[in-house]
Design a protein that fits this description.
Elements lengths: L6 E4 L5 H16 L1 H4 L7 E3 L25 E6 L3 E2 L16 E8 L7 E7 L3 E2 L10 E10 L5 E4 L3 E11 L8 H7 L12 H11 L3 H12 L3 H4 L11 H17 L10 H14 L13 H13 L6 H22 L2 E2 L19 E2 L11 H16 L5 H16 L5 E2 L2 E2 L2 H10 L3 H11 L9 H13 L5 E2 L11 E2 L6 H11 L2 H13 L8 H9 L12 E4 L4 E5 L6 H5 L2 E6 L21 E5 L2 E2 L10 H4 L7 E3 L18 E7 L3 E7 L18 H7 L7 E11 L3 E14 L1 E7 L2 E2 L5 E3 L17 E5 L17 E5 L2 E5 L6 E5 L4 E2 L3 E2 L5 E5 L13 E7 L6 E7 L24 E7 L3 E13 L7 E6 L2 E5 L6 E5 L9 E3 L1 H11 L38 H10 L3 H9 L2 H7 L6 H16 L17 H6 L6 H15 L10
Parallel strand pairs: 1-41, 2-44, 3-10, 43-44
Antiparallel strand pairs: 4-7, 5-6, 5-8, 8-9, 8-10, 11-12, 13-14, 15-16, 17-18, 18-19, 19-20, 20-21, 22-27, 23-24, 24-25, 25-26, 26-40, 27-39, 28-34, 29-33, 30-33, 31-32, 35-36, 36-37, 37-40, 38-39, 41-42, 42-43
Helix pairs in contact: 5-7, 7-8, 7-9, 8-9, 8-10, 9-11, 10-11, 10-12, 11-12, 11-14, 16-17, 23-24
């Protein structure tokens, strides 16, 4: 492959006057008349002027957080209220007590007179009238144990102010009994008796294809054999296709009011049989795994409301019993579960009483919510909306649902980001997920004014930047089940259209239309999707002129060289996505499908993804930090306790600014690293990775920060700043994607590829999985699907219900590794969009990656082939726990000699197809000069404040200090009057510990080895006998370097202290113990505590040769 060579120059390799001449020439060029108009602003100093505060809503937001935060000025009146279910967020997993809450609001800090004082059985309340503006409001929550009525105490008092001109959203109507009774009159799901005729007229005018299609479809159903047979509760109604058909017939009957639809057997008869089957087989208590399963719940909810007038009293009673049963179970998922059923055994409450006492686990909606519990509650909330005026359980769940939709909305994300990646974004948020649920409530009950919530407006902008028009990628870096190749989400009704219509965003609607032009949405259009445009008319399309945005609450920055809702942004432009989430990875036990990927970035240029991270579809390798563009310390990276937050935030944005010709952002992820004693883990996190990160192995880490500059909106400059209290090896990981070519195709229905079944050689076979969706036409990409078809006007209309997972199998020389080494630490590579049968040739983009730091200070390892998923420092290898799309290479770039602080400075410069290489010149370790191939654009970029002649200068200390100065004090989790249980000291898994030795711990490794080799005392004799033969041989080499000796010592010492107790009274008789060691001599220790004790014994035995570890 012909590679363009970047013109590299390193001033450190040019001696004397020659080097001085070169830098002078470069700076003279920057001042030259030919370049002045194209330069970055000569006065571009990025310091405290670019800094960002940490918003209170970002604190503790892995669980339902305190909102509004202390000191916050809110722009919504009244604000949305939520609070942590437990007095301390850290104990959300272990404190499973059933609590009620006393919520107080007052204009006085001492609460002598409160304008709101109520007891609530959930930790969200949002039925409030507007508050006074521009006046301090104080609020607090009291915690009460249900089982014994004991009062735990008050939360900290928080203070907020409603800004003048804040958007008013009067939500006092939610508790108005008269309104609730009228709102629950049937029909009310998507239309009412008062506007039924108007809705029908609108459909006949505005849906000339799909409304006739639905009527024809419904008419044909009446002749199908399963329909004409007498309905019976013994028939299998747990069938998404039957449920879809039943709901369609119900809609046509309810809108047209034509009597023939109800002739026996009519939809009301099948609905009763479905309801009886539903309760007979306890479908109300079984997990919902697929979105197609939710169709059965939809049919019951829609059918009960739309066919209410057609049912007999007995039929209504039977269907309402199913609805009430579903709502009772949904309450258990959202709220609390009887202790006897919260044991993971799958027991059923055959009486559907769900009597207490209750338990509130981490997976409940009041805490974290896991994806399956959330899906179950979503389905049940439709039942609650259908029966809100008819049954007490439906009414109760309806009220709780409203409080949750307003106060939290979605568990796995907040305003400005969903924490699941693109695959689960489409499935969990849009396809029969949160947006559909929200739209159903908003369209059915317009008096609620749910459109006033800022949640969907903010996230419409975020999703647009996550998926620019024409987007294509390889592996999705941000979460499980990501797409591979071309991503057609914005063209879908349930995704792009509904989001644009509900938010009334013209920018989002243009995004939908432009994506629709590239890939028509030829999926079928049924009931809810058919009616949403009546309630939310399309807005006028507009171009999104803001080229970049930062989302502080969820920790994302995204930028592009052209508006993301135009074809230019991805196809002909350059852009980036950067992640630093306060909630962290959220990879807890089934709760989230995100990765340990903070500070990573995703880049694209000129129609090609030029980065590739993660792993598809849902594999263990994707979870680990070094499967992404992250930073490591001693080969270790980010980790979290799987059950609750132990930090108020794990990562945070420090700075963001959008200049005339650049975008800059910075973030800190220090708290995301394994610095304290907890058991690392999470959803499919590899056990070896969890063990290595348990017990606080990175307690020494004090700084992990990344600065990203999108210069001229054409190339990227990344500065990484790391520090620790002891000598460490710092690493930046750079993943190099494959470049793909098309060589024919073969379509098959096949099982998924085995995890280790990929031939990594070139040429190799590649598997492309397509995931379960509810509406995907059989003609979409030629794959074979189980479908039924109907014909209308010569157009084949297709619908797929519950089908098997399908795969497309490409054969031929598809993947090739295009890396070209430019020097020791710099390289170039090619990347392209994955070809398809419709576009067999995709342009290849050459990207140059240049390390500015002196190469003599760096150690570089290129992992490729079968080692591409291996950690060269820890030895972990997840090649057998990964998917079918590996990287071409992974560069591990580290400091050669361990030190307490280090930085990396990297230039990433993609070029247009056919464009020559840029010139990149190292000035020093903090400064780089970059000139385009034509010589018309030149920049001098520095992170050294002494380099005053730089065209763009970043003041590192000013950025960090400025951000901290803007922060309010960390929102306290509870008052000191509340008894607080500290986070549990969970036993570490085998191989994990609180503090392992590393080579930086040995203050005099040569002297230590001499003592041990001489076996001069009982402890030395014992250790030498335990050392392996290879270690003894290595330590016997007199010329060994101290660093090499320290590495061997740490390996041997760690193996010994983890092998069991090493204490023997005679062996340690001559050792003077520290007070802390003496206090442990008589205790029975095991696990991590025993390992820690063993280390303390060795430290005391060699006080001159081993430095003491931190407590």
């Amino acid at each position: 492959m012909n590679m363009k060579r970047v013109k590299l120059a390193r001033l450190d390799s040019i001696s004397g006057s020659v080097g001085a001449t070169l830098i002078t020439k470069h700076l003279s060029f920057l001042a030259g008349a030919a370049c002045i108009a194209a330069q970055l602003s000569a006065a571009s100093l990025l310091s405290s002027n670019a800094t960002l505060p940490l918003p209170p809503a970002a604190e503790w937001n892995l669980v339902v957080p305190f909102r509004p935060g202390d000191g916050e000025t809110v722009s919504l009146n009244p604000p949305r209220f939520s609070w942590c279910y437990t007095p301390t967020p850290q104990t959300a997993a272990t404190d499973r007590r059933d609590l009620t809450f006393r919520l107080q609001l007052s204009y006085e800090s001492n609460f002598t007179s409160s304008f709101l004082d109520l007891t609530n059985d959930s930790n969200l309340f949002n039925a409030l009238a507007p508050l006074q503006t521009n006046q301090a409001v104080f609020w607090r929550v009291g915690y009460i144990v249900v089982t014994n009525g004991s009062f735990l105490g008050w939360s900290a008092t928080r203070r907020f102010t409603v800004a003048p001109g804040a958007t008013e959203w009067d939500r006092s109507l939610y508790t108005n009994e008269t309104w609730l009774a009228s709102a629950g009159a049937h029909p009310h799901f998507l239309f009412r008796a008062t506007n039924r005729a108007a809705v029908l007229a609108w459909l006949e005018t505005n849906e000339p294809v799909w409304w006739p299609y639905n009527k024809t479809f419904a008419s044909n159903i009446l002749a199908e054999s399963w329909w004409t047979n007498a309905p019976s509760r013994t028939h299998n109604y747990n069938d998404p296709a039957k449920a879809l058909k039943l709901a369609t017939v119900a809609l046509v009957r309810a809108l047209t009011q034509e009597s023939h639809w109800t002739n026996y057997p009519g939809p009301q008869d099948h609905l009763e049989a479905l309801a009886q089957y539903f309760t007979d087989h306890f479908l109300d208590q079984k997990d919902i795994n697929l979105h197609s399963d939710m169709l059965v719940w939809q049919a019951l909810a829609y059918g009960y409301d739309w066919l209410y007038q057609d049912m007999t009293a007995a039929q209504r009673s039977n269907v309402l019993f199913a609805i009430e049963s579903a709502c009772a179970a949904g309450r258990c998922h959202l709220f609390k579960t009887p202790v006897k059923f919260d044991n993971g055994t799958g027991n059923l409450d055959t009486n559907r009483v769900y009597a207490g006492p209750y338990s509130v686990s981490y997976w409940h909606g009041g805490k974290q919510f896991n994806s399956h519990a959330h899906l179950f509650w979503t389905a049940a909330s439709w039942m609650a909306l259908a029966g809100l005026a008819d049954g007490p359980r439906a009414r109760e769940l309806f009220e709780h649902t409203l409080h949750y939709l307003i106060g939290k909305t979605y568990p796995l994300g907040g305003e400005g980001g969903f924490n699941q990646g693109r695959g689960y974004l489409a499935a969990g948020v849009f396809l029969k997920g949160s947006l559909l649920n929200y739209l159903n409530y908003a369209a059915s009950l317009p008096e609620l004014h749910l459109e006033r919530s800022p949640f969907w407006k903010t996230n419409a902008d975020w999703v647009a930047r996550l998926l620019p028009v024409g987007w294509s990628e390889q592996n999705d870096p941000w979460g499980d089940d990501g797409p591979f190749g071309r991503v057609n989400y914005w063209n879908r009704r349930f995704f792009g259209r509904d989001l644009a219509l509900f938010t009334q965003s013209g920018a989002a609607y243009q995004h939908h239309l432009n994506e629709l032009a590239l890939a028509p949405d030829d999926s079928a259009n049924y009931f809810d999707e058919l009616l949403f445009p009546y309630h939310f008319p399309p807005p006028a399309p507009v171009t999104n002129t803001a080229l970049a945005n930062a989302y502080l609450e969820e920790g994302w920055v995204m930028g592009a060289s052209a508006p993301v809702n135009t074809h230019e942004a991805f196809t002909n432009g350059v852009g980036f996505i950067f992640q630093a989430r306060p909630r962290g990875a959220q990879s807890s036990q089934g709760t989230g499908h995100a990765h340990l990927s903070d500070l990573s970035y995703q880049l694209w240029a000129y129609g090609a993804p030029i980065t590739d991270a993660g792993d598809a579809p849902m594999n263990k390798y994707a979870k680990v930090a070094w499967a992404h563009y992250t930073l490591l310390v001693d080969g270790l990276g980010q980790a979290q306790w799987a059950e609750a937050p132990l930090e108020p935030y794990y990562c945070r944005l420090l700075a963001f600014t959008n200049g005339a010709h650049f975008t800059y952002c910075a973030a800190d992820a220090t708290r995301a690293y394994a610095r304290s004693n907890f058991a690392a883990g999470g959803w499919i996190v590899p056990s070896q990775y969890a063990a290595l990160h348990s017990g606080g192995p990175l307690a020494k880490v004090t700084k992990v920060q990344r600065h990203l500059l999108f210069a001229r909106r054409k190339y990227f400059v990344v500065y990484d700043d790391l520090a620790a209290t002891r000598n460490s090896t710092f690493t930046m990981v750079y993943q190099v994607p494959w470049v793909y070519s098309w060589a024919g195709s073969n379509y098959n229905m096949m099982p998924k590829a085995p995890a280790n079944g990929l031939n990594l050689a070139t040429p190799h076979r590649i598997w492309w999985p397509f995931w379960r969706t509810n509406e995907l036409p059989s003609t979409a990409n030629g794959e074979l699907l189980e479908v039924w078809t109907n014909s209308l006007g010569g157009t084949n209309l297709c619908y797929r219900g519950n089908v098997y997972e399908t795969n497309r199998w490409w054969e031929g020389p598809l993947g090739s590794n295009s890396v070209t080494l430019l020097d020791k630490a710099s390289f170039s590579y090619e990347a392209n969009s994955v070809p398809t049968a419709q576009q067999t040739n995709t342009a290849s983009v050459t990207t140059y990656v240049y390390q500015v730091v002196d190469p003599a200070l760096l150690a570089v390892t290129n992992m490729s082939g079968t080692s591409v998923r291996k950690n060269p420092i820890t030895g972990e290898d997840y090649g057998s726990q990964s998917g079918a799309h590996p990287r071409g290479s992974v560069f591990w770039i580290s400091n050669r000699n361990p030190t307490t602080n280090f930085h990396f400075l990297t230039v990433i410069y993609p070029t247009k197809p056919g464009e020559a290489a840029p010139t990149i010149t190292r000035i020093d370790d903090w400064t780089v000069a970059v000139t385009n191939s034509a010589g018309t654009e030149g920049d001098l970029i520095s992170f050294d404040t002494n380099r005053t002649n730089a065209t763009l200068l970043v003041d590192l200390a000013g950025v960090v200090a400025g951000s901290q100065s803007l922060d309010a004090p960390i929102d306290p989790p509870a008052d000191t009057t509340v008894p607080i249980t500290p986070p549990p000291a969970k036993p570490a898994p085998p191989g994990a510990m609180t503090k392992l030795f590393d080579y930086g711990d040995f203050t005099n490794p040569i002297a230590l080895v001499a003592k041990i080799r001489a076996q001069a005392d009982p402890v030395s004799q014992f250790l030498w006998e335990q050392f392996t033969p290879s270690a003894k041989a290595a330590l016997s080499v007199l010329t060994a370097k101290p660093a090499d000796v320290g590495t061997t010592l740490s390996t041997e010492m760690n193996r010994i202290i983890r092998s069991g107790t090493i204490y023997d009274s005679q062996r340690f008789a001559a050792v003077v113990f520290s007070a802390k060691t003496r206090s442990l001599l008589t205790q029975r220790l095991e696990g991590a505590q025993l390992v820690r004790f063993n280390r303390m014994l060795i430290e005391d035995a060699y006080p001159q040769e081993i430095g003491p570890s931190e407590n």
